[in-house]
Amino acid sequence: MIRLALHGGAGDLALDRTDTREQRAALRDIAQQGRQLLQDGASAVEAVEHLVVLLEECPLFNAGIGAVLNRDGQPELDAAIMSGLDRACGAVAGVMRAKSPIRLARAVMERSPHVMFTGTGAETLNRELGLEEVTPDHFITEIRFHQLKEAHARGVIVLDHDDASFAAPDAAFGTVGAVVRDAEGHLAAATSTGGLTNKHPGRVGDTPVIGAGTFADDRSAAISCTGTGEAFIRSGFGFEVHARMTYCGWDLARACDDGLDEVRRLGGRGGCIAIDHEGQLALPFNSSAMFRAWMGADGNIHTAVGPQDAD
Length: 311
Known about the structure:
The chain has helices at 21-39, 44-56, 101-111, 119-128, 142-154, 229-235, 237-246, 252-265, and strands at residues 3-11, 77-83, 89-95, 116-118, 158-159, 176-181, 187-193, 196-197, 214-216, 221-227, 270-276, 281-282, 289-295, 301-304. The chain is of the alpha+beta class and 311 residues long. It has one domain: 4-Layer Sandwich (Glutamine Phosphoribosylpyrophosphate, subunit 1, domain 1). Strand 11 (270-276) and strand 12 (281-282) form a beta hairpin.
């Protein structure tokens, strides 16, 4: 029983004033490609990597091309991937030259003895392993440059998926992620992000922190988060969901909801996508919106942004 879910970020978006059709269409198309990949026999790790690569290449979201910019006008990209089969994982933070942060994260997992690389060390590894390299301007779009200028003027640091008055009406949204259950019953999760608009250079959020923004274990669930990274780190979100399921016997929905209650208590907003070992889905969020797509039990691809606008 194959299952998949994608997210493109969460935040307090004024849905009545925002046209999200382009983002939903992109999520649907990518999810359909993921469904076909799994039907053709791809493993969970192969599928989540491929899905997140496609999301990184889509300028509508805050990952890869179209990522938000730090205070100095530079993209600093983070990514992580984890296999539920054996908890193998890889993560990178603060990269500017790796064309695909998620491909580099998988290479860390499979082609190095380590779990996480940062900054220039990660970029050196990317080069040594023969992965594609670009200049930082490869990731920068006009919309993101405009957002940074306005954030500078207002002196704010902003979640890319919030309904900020300075954002262009067609501005890109959110951190991206994918979770998958493959035909063999194995789980995997992957997440990629540019972080926060106008963030202090060097800031790292929850995306590359294994057990916070990205987690997978075949005994429990695969989880990818989006939102206020600091709160997801402080709550240990991914591992806490796993613990509630394995130690307390809770189902996936209850474990995720309880985890988000803790994120809220710590002053955070956002959501997650999750698939458990039986193929059940949970897509909760405590903000007004979360861009998401998933394959339901009926085998069809569905998308939604608000609480009750699924198609």
